[in-house]
UniProtKB/TrEMBL annotation:
<dbReference type="GO" id="GO:1904019">
    <property type="term" value="P:epithelial cell apoptotic process"/>
</dbReference>
<keyword id="KW-1133">Transmembrane helix</keyword>
<dbReference type="GO" id="GO:0060586">
    <property type="term" value="P:multicellular organismal-level iron ion homeostasis"/>
</dbReference>
<dbReference type="GO" id="GO:0006788">
    <property type="term" value="P:heme oxidation"/>
</dbReference>
<dbReference type="GO" id="GO:0048471">
    <property type="term" value="C:perinuclear region of cytoplasm"/>
</dbReference>
<dbReference type="InterPro" id="IPR002051">
    <property type="entry name" value="Haem_Oase"/>
</dbReference>
<dbReference type="InterPro" id="IPR018207">
    <property type="entry name" value="Haem_oxygenase_CS"/>
</dbReference>
<dbReference type="GO" id="GO:0006879">
    <property type="term" value="P:intracellular iron ion homeostasis"/>
</dbReference>
<dbReference type="GO" id="GO:0005789">
    <property type="term" value="C:endoplasmic reticulum membrane"/>
</dbReference>
<dbReference type="InterPro" id="IPR016084">
    <property type="entry name" value="Haem_Oase-like_multi-hlx"/>
</dbReference>
<keyword id="KW-0812">Transmembrane</keyword>
<dbReference type="GO" id="GO:1903589">
    <property type="term" value="P:positive regulation of blood vessel endothelial cell proliferation involved in sprouting angiogenesis"/>
</dbReference>
<dbReference type="GO" id="GO:0042167">
    <property type="term" value="P:heme catabolic process"/>
</dbReference>
<dbReference type="InterPro" id="IPR016053">
    <property type="entry name" value="Haem_Oase-like"/>
</dbReference>
<protein>
    <recommendedName>
        <fullName>Heme oxygenase 1</fullName>
        <ecNumber>1.14.14.18</ecNumber>
    </recommendedName>
</protein>
<dbReference type="GO" id="GO:0110076">
    <property type="term" value="P:negative regulation of ferroptosis"/>
</dbReference>
<dbReference type="GO" id="GO:0002246">
    <property type="term" value="P:wound healing involved in inflammatory response"/>
</dbReference>
């Protein structure tokens, strides 16, 4: 179309729609996800190389992490920055993990469940976010829960077969979501709710950064144990051991960094030879949980 003067009218160009938050998180964590996905540890776990001892340590870490996460979610349940993605009946894992702790550690599990320094740091970060920056909590909830609904189901089958666990699901309650009959549809609902959250560009940027931080906190859980695979653990000196802290109270309070001893607590006495497979399979499970989960988000 031309005006009488002969000049052309310029049609406005459509602006590019902003990327959905769920897609933005997936993109922001792509690089670190690829690093974890290509590790030898993940491939080993997919082969079913897991022991009961290693699995118990993994589940203990998950218990502490989800207890802290869900404590902070409850604190923010009515906040506009989280309320749309508040699905306690469908997603919350603490009760299921308590069942698993009783299975793996016995009736006095609250006194026996260990908490490593890296787990404690993860717990501390969740409390920091929930109390000071609750608008970032969605990054942790999304990367954990939707991952559990995706890659976690594959890991459940692998662990069940490798550990010879009963078909009834005992010891694996964490992986069962009775409130989610259709995982695919629920994940679509969750993403839609999350993408509807109103946030400024600055908050959105911090949410993406926190999603990467959540991934790295997971990776630190197994990096902490990687020292057991160093040459020092192969020589004649006493084997390195995990800095594990056992909860001293049955009141359900979460550990703080100050409660974690600086020294190295001893695992049950054994040579470094039998210990290495435990650690290798533990590392494998943690990497697989993170990598497979985010891949399926």
């Amino acid at each position: 179309m031309e005006m009488e003067t002969g000049t052309k009218l310029q049609c406005p160009q459509p602006s590019r729609a902003p990327q959905d938050l769920s897609e933005a998180i997936k993109e922001a964590t792509k690089e670190v996800h690829t690093q974890a996905e290509n590790t030898e540890f993940m491939r080993n776990f997919q082969k079913g190389q897991v022991t009961p001892e290693a699995f118990k340590l993994v589940m203990a870490s998950l218990y502490h992490i989800y207890a802290a996460l869900e404590e902070e979610i409850e604190r923010s349940r009515d906040s506009p920055s989280f309320a749309p993605v508040y699905f306690p009946e469908e997603l919350h894992r603490r009760e299921a993990l308590e069942q698993d702790m009783a299975f793996w550690y016995g009736p006095q599990w609250r006194l026996a469940v260990p908490c490593s320094p890296a787990t404690s740091r993860y717990v501390q970060r969740l409390h920091e976010v929930g109390r000071a920056e609750p608008e970032l909590l969605v990054a942790h909830a999304y990367t954990r829960y939707l991952g559990d609904l995706s890659g976690g189901q594959v890991l459940k089958k692998i662990a069940q077969k490798a550990l010879g666990l009963p078909a009834s699901g005992e010891g694996l309650a964490f992986f069962t979501f009775p409130g989610v009959p259709n995982a695919t549809k629920f994940k679509q609902l969750y993403r839609a709710r999350m993408n509807s959250l109103e946030m400024t560009p600055e908050v959105r940027h911090r949410v993406l950064a926190e999603a990467k931080a959540a991934f790295l906190l997971n990776i630190q859980l197994f990096e902490e144990l990687q020292g057991l695979l160093t040459p020092k653990s192969q020589d004649q000196s006493p084997p390195q051991t995990l800095g594990l802290h056992h909860r001293a109270s049955s009141q359900g309070q979460e550990p703080s960094l100050d409660e974690v001893p600086q020294g190295k607590a001893q695992l049950p006495s054994q040579s470094s030879g039998p210990l290495l497979p435990w650690v290798l399979t533990l590392l494998t499970f943690l990497v697989a949980t993170v990598a497979m989960s985010l891949y399926a988000l």
